[in-house]
Amino acid sequence: MSQESSQSAHRVVAIVDDGSNPFEVGVATELFGLRRPELEGRLRKPWYELRLCSATPTVSMHAGFFTISGIAPLEAVEEADTVLVPNRPDPEVPPSGPVLDAVRTAASRGARLMSFCTGAFTLAEAGVLDGRRATTHWRWADVFRSRFPRVDLDPDVLYIDEGSVLTAAGSAAALDLGLHIIRNDHGADVANAVSRRAVFAGHRDGGQRQFVERPVARRAEAGLAPVLEWAQARLDQPLTVRDLARRASVSPATLHRRFAAELGTTPLGWLTGERVRLACLLLEKGELTLDQVAASSGLGTASNLRLLLRKHVGVNPTEYRRRFGHRQRQPSSLSAPSTSSSVHEAR
């Protein structure tokens, strides 16, 4: 792989505690532990190095289905760049003291911390979520709020990125958060390749709802797939919600209801997210100026590109291209500031 020899692998350590859910451990292994031949030639820095660790020599997994042994001791956390804390089968039972101490120590030295599902209880118990936004499984929201009132809980989203601390909701959202981390560390092109191997949606925005109602259809319907594919092929055009509704042969109000039911977002929210995703891919290729990226992705202007990329990805386009661009030399941009946007909501 095209990796710089001077760089060392990013060390991810997943703590496994009594009662941990095997699915979350499997997600960590799938995303951060497997070899990635599909990324040959795409990586600009080394892939992750994953280790599992525990406070005891053997760990009984959720419901006693099986035990894990032969993994690293808890001291492995001391060398981790990213620490995945354990989730809890019964969130009202706190993790062991040594696990909490390891999490606190990792936080104090600046390691990135993340939790899947009820793992937010572990982070909160360790005190690292005080004053921060976080999420957890919707089923445990009331219990979480009552125990940790100093945490700003949002139980309606898939995941929350607070920089050094990231939390995901239910089990499937662990994949969303993991891919989000890969996207931030290695770029959209690499994250998309990993998602394809996992046969999983390449990008679901963290702000999407956890629980999306999917009422049983009264008749066979094709769903939103045809109109989504149609729009994805025309992202550089000034599409409106009315355009999407017309393509789907429904009213704008009906389209809004179907997006809410099937995707947990609005048509405009989905359209903007797809345009930002396309802009990221174009920035990585490094062949276009910022004005050209904005126009080709349907974001209109370099100013709007900067605004939306910072909102959705957390960095500006120049920084994104510097970190993930395939070319070392960046094309210049002579774009002028603008406040206009080519993304319009039909009224």
From TrEMBL:
Residue ranges, annotated region (Disordered): 321-347
Keyword RNA-binding belongs to the record: no
Presence of keyword Transcription regulation: yes
Signal peptide span: none
Biased composition, class Low complexity, residue ranges: 332-347
Keywords: DNA-binding, Transcription, Transcription regulation
Domain HTH araC/xylS-type intervals: 225-323
GO molecular-function terms, A-Z: DNA-binding transcription factor activity; sequence-specific DNA binding
SUPFAM superfamilies: Class I glutamine amidotransferase-like, Homeodomain-like
Pfam families membership: DJ-1_PfpI, HTH_18
Protein name per the record: Transcriptional regulator containing an amidase domain and an AraC-type DNA-binding HTH domain
Native species: Saccharomonospora xinjiangensis XJ-54
